[in-house]
Write a structure and sequence with these properties.
alpha+beta, 7-stranded mixed beta sheet, 4-stranded antiparallel beta sheet, 11 helices
Length: 665
């Protein structure tokens, strides 16, 4: 008896591990082979008990549905015969039964049998495709990839859903024509919610047969050649939680939140990993007990690496019997898949990756889904060079294809600075051993990943414009408001007012929130304001993004600033929290200093630095008045912004801060 590859929902998979050896005795539902695809890892179970006679595949082989994996010798002598022997036995039995046709004649009759309209009718039915278990309670519909009337195949991505953990493309479980789309972009969905309805073609067979004796004979023959599928009760199963797709090659284990023996719930955070982009909490995909922890603090891990093993409750799928080979289309499809024991998809084979490590690091900073990233790796596209057309600057597959087409059809321009530049022009350090020696101390990870980004400033002709705003009245008003804000748990800082004033001004002066095009012949003006807010943490400076401050009240801005600062200090910022800014504010608060020259954060063209406010004598025409003056430092890319424009910008900002009521005019 041969155990074959079941329908695992993809065209092909790779043999990742062979879990048994020749001579082993296996029981029904014992795992035999581990298969990996770009979607998931699946253990193929045995559909029968017996002894492994031979292994028909090798580790690394690519297999498809129906490919023989294992040859099994059944323990029951009556069932150890091959398919040919079974046919012979059935034929002998049928010869002793005059009312039955021989198996060969039955199969011939089945092959030539044409059912009448009353017996079989071809019809179409509507199938609902629902949100699968994505490991979280709810998610947002980020993108709808199909529309009514589209012809789709099984495993084709139909909807992109986003949670605070990851971005997931939901595949179709059926092939057919999209009848209706039941959700909209931005909708909140959870497991079981209907996404689309698909019209599929099907065959409805009549229950009654015209010739009862022949039908009985057919069913008898099938019963002899097919074992009956039995439902397997729920059983304990070991589930590995692995590193998800962080969009980077590797990450570091920053914190282990559980220990062996702990009981965890589904979606409970178990491990904190730090990537070049952010700190991410990896949740458990199931409830259970921690049986093993496979990583240590500080260990470097990549996508697919096992973090912990959890003993949970899983339901084994009923094993459907293999259909008779002579039948063109079996009545019942085989079991969809074996129990999935890994929570994340494996890493894509490096052979298809056409990008360097530097280019992959640049891709990691771009907002795109797993399928788009895979396509970029296969085509050798640096995503940071592709113009995004999706919501919130999300890259689509169409954007990648359009970029490739443009590159193939237009002459290549002169090379520009790469997205990640190395520090150039500096010689090696001298030997300090004659001067007391040195002690090497590693920089924090945040400092290390900031070096390439800060080095890009070498290519920007930067100028800084200094000014000072009279915030005496603004500070007095803030003092009146902050008491009531504090009762609500809200910290009202001067930064909330500055962010609101800047957002208003950037709508009037869009060049300060734009980007210099790659050809350096035009400026890309953004349709929305997303403001980076520099936050000091023990590990270094990080810049989360305040979304659309021009559309929010000062109270809303104050609340979000507090939340972003807290997430930054607790290392809970997601990659999306750090992306998409087109202007940055950096503040020294009350640390000290009178002015400084902040570095423009490429690809932005301007950044505002704020120094501590001080009481200063200001001439009013007759005498000096004590006024609270706030120093401002506006650094800008001189290729995009002229000095006169920068001076006007800071002057307008000082007027807004001096009388915040002008925002209402």
């Amino acid at each position: 008896m041969q155990i074959k590859t079941p329908d695992i929902g993809v065209d092909k998979a790779t043999v990742a591990e062979i879990l048994i050896k020749v001579g082993d005795t296996v029981a029904v539902d014992d795992s035999l082979v581990l298969l990996e695809s770009d979607k998931a890892s699946v253990e193929v179970p045995s559909t029968s008990a017996g002894v492994v006679k031979s292994i028909l595949v090798n580790q690394g082989d690519e297999v498809t549905e129906g490919v023989a994996l294992i040859e099994l010798e059944s323990e029951d002598a009556s069932n150890t015969v091959t398919e040919i022997q079974q046919a012979d036995a059935s034929q002998k039995t049928s010869e002793n039964t005059p009312t039955s046709l021989p198996d060969q004649e039955i199969m011939q009759e089945l092959a030539s049998y044409q059912p009448s309209t009353s017996q079989t009718s071809t019809s179409s039915s509507i199938v609902e495709v629902q949100v699968p278990d994505i490991g979280v309670e709810k998610a947002l519909v980020g993108e709808i990839l199909v529309q009514v009337g589209d012809v789709i195949d099984v495993d084709q991505s139909i909807v992109v859903v986003e949670s605070d953990k990851a971005t997931v493309e939901v595949p179709s479980s059926v092939s057919g024509i999209v009848e209706s789309v039941e959700v909209h972009e931005g909708d909140t969905v959870k497991e079981g919610v209907v996404l689309i309805k698909v019209k599929v073609a099907g065959t409805t067979q009549a229950k009654t047969a015209v010739e009862a004796p022949k039908a009985e004979t057919v069913h008898a023959a099938v019963a002899k050649s097919e074992p009956v599928a039995e439902a397997v009760p729920a059983q304990s199963g070991a589930i590995e939680i692995t590193v998800p797709d962080l969009g980077v090659d590797k990450a570091t284990v920053a914190e282990i939140l559980v220990k062996v023996g702990d009981t965890v719930e589904a979606d409970q955070s178990i491990i904190v990993v730090e990537s070049d982009k952010a700190t991410v909490e990896v949740p458990s995909s199931t409830a259970g007990v921690i049986k093993a922890i496979h990583v240590e603090l500080g260990q470097s891990v990549s996508q697919g690496v096992a973090l912990v093993t959890i003993e949970g409750k899983v339901k084994a799928a009923a094993q459907a019997a293999p259909a008779a080979k002579a039948e063109a289309k079996p009545e019942a499809a085989p079991a969809k898949s074996a129990p999935v024991v890994q929570a994340q998809a494996p890493v894509v084979a490096s052979g298809s990756d056409k990008l360097t490590k530097e280019q992959s690091a640049a891709n990691a900073k771009v907002y795109a889904g797993p399928a788009v990233r895979k396509l970029a790796r296969e085509l050798g596209v640096v995503l940071s060079q592709v113009k995004a057309s999706g919501a919130h600057d999300r890259l689509m597959k169409e954007d990648v294809f359009a970029y490739v087409k443009t590159r193939l059809t237009t002459p290549q321009a002169a090379p520009v600075a790469q997205a990640v530049a190395q520090v150039s022009g500096l010689p090696k350090l001298p030997d300090f051993s004659a001067f007391g020696g040195t002690e090497e101390k590693a920089m924090t990870r945040l400092q290390q990943v900031s070096v390439p980004q800060l080095s890009l400033n070498n290519f920007i002709p930067q100028v800084t414009q200094f000014d000072a705003a009279d915030i005496t009245e603004l500070e007095a008003w803030r003092g009146e408001l902050k008491g009531n804000f504090k009762k609500e748990g809200i910290s009202l800082t001067i930064l909330a007012f500055i962010a609101k004033a800047l957002a208003h001004l950037l709508k009037e002066e869009p060049y300060f929130a734009g980007h210099l095009a790659d050809d350096q012949k035009s400026v890309l003006l953004r349709n929305e304001i997303h403001m980076g807010i520099a936050v000091a943490t023990p590990d270094g400076l990080t810049v989360p993004v305040l979304r659309n401050p021009d559309q929010k009240s000062i109270k809303q801005i104050a609340i979000e600033l507090g939340e972003l600062s807290k997430k930054a200090r607790e290392k809970k910022l997601s990659p999306k929290d750090l992306q998409g800014a087109n202007f940055t504010i950096t503040s020294l608060g009350s640390i000290g200093g009178t002015a400084f020259t902040p570095l423009v954060n490429w690809p932005q063209v301007a950044i505002l630095g704020i120094s501590p406010a001080t009481m200063q004598p200001v001439w009013n025409g007759e005498g000096f008045d004590p006024r609270l003056m706030l120093p401002l430092s506006l650094s800008y890319d001189h290729r995009v912004i002229n000095g006169a424009d920068a001076a006007r910008f800071t002057h307008k900002l000082t007027k807004l801060l001096a009388d915040i009521r002008t925002l209402l005019l």
